[in-house]
Amino acid sequence: MNWCLIDKHFTTRSSLCSLVILLQLVVGSVVVAQQQVDRSSRLRETVSLDTDIAVTKKLKTAEDYLAAQQWEAAIEVLGGIIDGQSDTLVAASTGRYVSAGAYSHLLLSRLPADALALYRRKTDPQARQWFENGRQTRDASLLRRVLKFAYVGSYGDDALSLLGEWAWERGEIDTARRYWKQLSPADEQSPASLRFPDPQLGRADVLARLMLCNLAEGNFGRAERQRARIHRQFPDATGTLAGRTGRLADIAGALLGEAKGWTLPAPDTTAQTFAGTMSRQQILPLAVDIAAEQWSVQFSAREQRRFKFPSRQPAYPMQPAHSVHPLVHEGIVYFSDADRIYAYNLRTGKPAWPGPEGEEDNAVIYQLHDNLFPIDTHAAVGVPRFSMTIHDGRLYARMGTPMTSRSERELIADIRTDLVVLDLDPKRGQGKLLTKVSADSFGRGGAPWSFEGSPVVGGNRVYIALRRSQPQMQINVACFDSSSGRLIWNRRVCAAVSNIGRNNNLITHQLLTLAENKLFISTDLGAVAALDARDGAPLWVLTYESSPAKSPAVFSDHTEQGLLPCLFHQGTVYAAPNDSDHIFAIDAQSGVVKWQRRLGDRIRHLLGVGQGNLIVSGNSLWGLNAENGEVVWGRAITDPEFYGYGRGLLVDDAIWWPTRETIEIRSQRTGHRIRRQPIPLEAHGTTRARNTGGNLQITNGYLLVAQADRLVVYGESPLPVRPTRREISAAAPQRQRWLAKFPVTVPK
Length: 748
Hints:
The chain is α+β, with helices and mostly antiparallel strands. It is 23% helix and 28% strand. The protein contains 15 helices and 44 strands. The longest helix has 25 residues, at 113-137. The chain starts with a strand and ends in a 9-residue tail after the last helix.
């Protein structure tokens, strides 16, 4: 019999599946509707989640009451779960877990009118007070409280509408879309998504607002489909949109015609981290015309000497990985290794802030002085990665050994990792240490913890993943105050048994994704999860059948293992876990799988969504329809000479894709070459060192290529490039000013 470990409770897989089936029978296909993707009960889960069998039994009791039409009793049970056990995970369908609160709201949203009225008589007095106070004081937390505790009450739709309006005013288009979308019926791809049952705002008004979101993002194709729906289904509906009052079909048509001449805000290039932004989705507005190499610097080779990595070809040492992911901030290039952070002037290649006399050429701005781990080589599996995050003039980096768990047979001292925060102010800061938090503080009285990859930052909060290997492999997410380093919350995501992690020193670098006040993590342990960034409460977990690397050698092969955080785009989370050969598109609100796709290629990079396509790469380059996952273009490349060689970029409507010796520039829409001949990197080099592909970055007239062994900076001139105008930024003030031209008025 298959047993599923859930926290401290053991329950059979068959009993969980029986409960899911019973829930479907009681409340119909609306509650746990058949997903477009078939995820049958044969799924073998390998993760342990924090679920509670007592809450599951309460839901079963509520289901029984609903089946017997005992509305008041059902409302009482569901209300108790919402008030006291809302954050507990429960199985909603095969391989999908959601919070008990969201599931309870979903059940309540399907009540008949008379039962819904009964519920509202119980909850409206308190909800009214929260809503009125929140509206008068513009306190969004009070409106969110309405949604958490009385979602289907009489004030739930008012809260959704107003929160969407406020998000629009702040320039947060994705957040506005998320709130307004909940006022429309569930679509075919997300039938189990929570929706308000009877909103006062008409469907035409909601469609018009969603269309406006797409126009503001330049997604004219989707906007046209929404305009056509308004014209076809609601030809006579009237309302106010973008400061205009009249027939919504006419307003929508006029806006769509005008939109193609709009100068939209430039893509956001201010939040600096791996893949460009905290959502891991970025399209750069400007390309660069490469003329010549400007300067280069060699990376330290210490990381390769510190560990002995298994190879599938013992006679030949494995080629080093493209481990370094540099950042550029205000004309300075930053990159790191395990215990040093470097800073170089982007234009000259000289140290950004020369050291004291005798150390003028020293570009190190921070160094760990502790003996974190000896130079003596140790057997390890995994791929070392080094990334950072820059936010609001501060640099955040995960420092220390790249090992995140230690073999049970390892004799070295406990591994240690730190989260450091540096001040990048060119006058007062120059890399000054502001805060340092050690993962050791989490391991007192138990197995040691390690920080995973670099953090994501939102406002004054820093979020980072942690791992420990004993008593079993476990992933947590922690939140800190960005100024003081004070721990705000620490939540377990999942745990799993890992033979590779138990028997080997393990190197990992899991990265979080931050969007819409949600954190997303692809654990590579058989689960993708979403947490509320405010308090760490679990929102949903998607499990899949984990197929980890078949051997330590494969786990250490950078051509098989990618740096693959979730990618968020317009309400959808895209995940390509290293322990699965599938790409998943997941509804960010509900955790429902919209589609999944298997390619004949080991995916190493999720590059982003452009021109309606999800662009992914490995040995080959692929474009998948972002809506349904169909392969639009791409084919498996079989000649290693033309394999992908590093992480590419989306630039305007093009893809910059590095191969071993060139950079190919291809169309995001068709995959065809935009530039007939690839850019030959060797021809633009000025040193004897061989120029190859690597991790790309473009900024202000420069192309940076982080090769396996060095950083090469190319410019648009055969001589060092002079400073040019600052890039147009889509920081919040600019975005807000632009969106203010199209006000959204909530009908009275």
